[in-house]
Amino acid sequence: MSVLPMKHMVICAKRQDRKAILEYLQRIGSVEIITHDVDETDAVFSRMDVSQSAQLFTKNAAQADKALEILAAAAPEDGSILSAFEGRTPITLEEYETNAKKRETTMKIVNDILRLDKELTEAKADVPRITTQIEALTPWSALDYPLSFTGTKKTSAFIGTFPEKLTEAEIAERLAGYAPDIEAVDVNIINSEDNLTSVLISCLKSDRNSIDDALRRMNFQRPPVSDMVPAAQVDAYKKERDAAIEKIDSTKEKIASYADKRDDIKFISDYFRMRAAKYEVLGTLEQSKRIFIIEGYVPAENAETLEGNLVGRYELVVDMLDPEPDEDVPVLLKNGPFAAPVEGVIESYSMPGKGELDPTTPVACFYYILFGMMLSDFAYGALMSIATFVLIKKVKNLETSMKKTLTMFFYCGIGTMISGILFGSYFGDAPTVIAKTFFGKTLEIPKLIDPLSQPMKMLVLCFAIGIIHLFAGLIINLYTAIKTKRYVDAVSDSILWMLLVGGLLLFGLTTDMVTGMFALNKISPAAGNVGKIMAVIGAVGIILMDGRESKNWFKRTLKGLYGLYGVTSYLSDLLSYSRLLALGLATSVISSVFNQMGSMVAGTPVVGVIFFILIFLVGHLLNLAINALGAYVHTNRLQYVEFFSKFYSGGGRMFSPFSINTKYYTIRDNADNK
Predict the structure, then answer these.
(1) Domains of the chain by range and CATH?
(2) H or E element, residue 321
(3) What's the whole-number average pLDDT of the chain?
(4) Is 587 helix (H, G, I), strand (E, B) or coil?
(5) Most buried among 54, 472, 515, 580, by the most CB within 10 A?
């Protein structure tokens, strides 16, 4: 386990090479660029305003991504289940440069797809709009006049609807009531429904105003004006709708025809995303008329190679300096294949601060054990390890972060398998249930501890692992303090607490209360006396030294007493490890429940077996998913809260190199590896 030392790199190069150098640094991805505040008084160095260019590149990348989404809807990309885990495709620098030359052609394709999608959206919107117009005109299909018809030279016509179902006689009667002086009126019902009556009403021109006023009082509504006969207008709308539907189909086909350009569009998306990132960095560099300066952090193990490659490629000067004590140096972890998979767990919490050790290796050792005890089923662990192993071996271009995650769960699966053997759990009690249900045999599975029938014994094991876990944290704290020559801290923050807690544990094992509660054998009284002495030494030492920063003896004593009260936190920390028992029991009990459910329907030979298999598969898959998630969450909690509180503060800043943060491709420059 180690935190890689860093070098402070300073490059001074010709301004004309700045883009090429930045592209090279971006490809190798091993330098974190340092930005400084702008010095407005500097008459030599200044910074370029590249905001417009960066925004343009970001916009182009977004348009390419949008085009890919449109293309995926019109012509879905073929892919297997494993393809969901695949990472970015590596391409050579030569392939990158070849594809970059086609960027203008590819952007035209992107714009064509976006234009076609706009047309498709408009055509899709036309269909419901036209359908609504057809539905509005359908009641008027029997009308032989256009809806704009208002009458002849001697008559006036009113076309519209009443918001209720009426007969011609009822309409005429109401009109007579509202306009008693009219000479004649003709009512023709065009269409009648439960809550709508469509009519054509005719009268003499001299009665127009009276009829108009009467209709207004009857809630008469006029339809949208049209110069065509409704039946002809409906036919025209239907043709328009058919044309819109045809356009939808043809536009989809046109979009799908660009499926063979998908890779080019993916590349152009990454290309502009890389250029946007490069220009953002370019805008932070200090430049004069002829030179520019780059500052950054690089892992010390890569510094010599990087310096040689830069000097061999460009005319420049490189200085690799040791960082100053007050510099905010980023943190990069490096671990072996067993511990590296849990680096993500450390990063999720916080990177090591200055002077702290990389806790990855001890975290890994306990992580796989704790996870395994919580899931605690051999078959579940085997499924997890086999699945992750297959993914690691079969998936192409697996990203580093994904590979680490899968490897972590592979080791967690092994830990689960070991716990399953110790506790005799193979899909719960499936072997016993199957043997009894289908073969009438009694099968006993060998086990070291049966969590269901021996819960106290299991709890003692959980507490024992918890004690080891907590003391491991104190030992790491002791080692860190000695390594950094903080000898007083080593005694007060580690040794005294180990004496106090260890002494109390020894003494507790000589008492009837503790041994009776956990069904343990008492240890010898002599060991108990040693425990008392250890506890007293630890307690007195904590009282005297925990408040050592205070010069006043009274305040120092009060702080020491308050610090001694912290021994209760060790009790709560230790009790937290009972979750190992709780989650292990949950997995076992739920497994047994599903097994029993399956055996209850396994009466008939064929149907029973089918139902048993269905319940078995569904039940155990759900149990595995839910309890694996619970094991992951609670294992992290035990690391973050109980373990890290004993030695780890964090606060470091993760190393964030200037690199190719793309979606689809990575660039492999063979010359960089020489």
Answers:
(1) 1-41+284-331 (3.30.70.920), 148-222 (3.30.70.2750), 340-441+456-646 (no CATH)
(2) strand 316-321
(3) 90
(4) helix
(5) 580
